[in-house]
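Below is how a single chain appears once it has passed through the pipeline. First comes the sequence as given, then the structure the pipeline wrote out for it. We keep one example in the README because the format questions we get most often are answered faster by looking than by reading.
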Amino acid sequence: MQKCYRANTFKQSWLSVVALAICLVLAQGCAEYHVAMKDADPAVLPYKANMIHSLGWGLLYKPQQITTKCDTKTGINDVVVKSNYLYSLVAVLSLGIWMPIEIDHRCQAGSGEEIILGNK
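Resulting structure:
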């Protein structure tokens, strides 16, 4: 007669799922794309974050525009586009119907403003 190991199998599979979930949370990656001007001189200001959403595979809200309060003479210094595991998971689970993404920007230093040299 064979012994039934059903309880052990369920416990092992449950522990595997929990371990996988913990690994996914701890290994959460973040893709970051940075677009900067050739002669960048950013103002000493934090990045201004904007969350945009693509709905219906990009058919709605096309093209998306983000407005800024940067000085028109100096303009935007750099833009950072960020995505992470959660944003990708939302896009996959919704079959691409909803795709969130974060776009940060920073203004360029105007006359008389302190500038940052080197990396951000």
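Helices lie at 6-26, 85-93.

See the next section for the split statistics.
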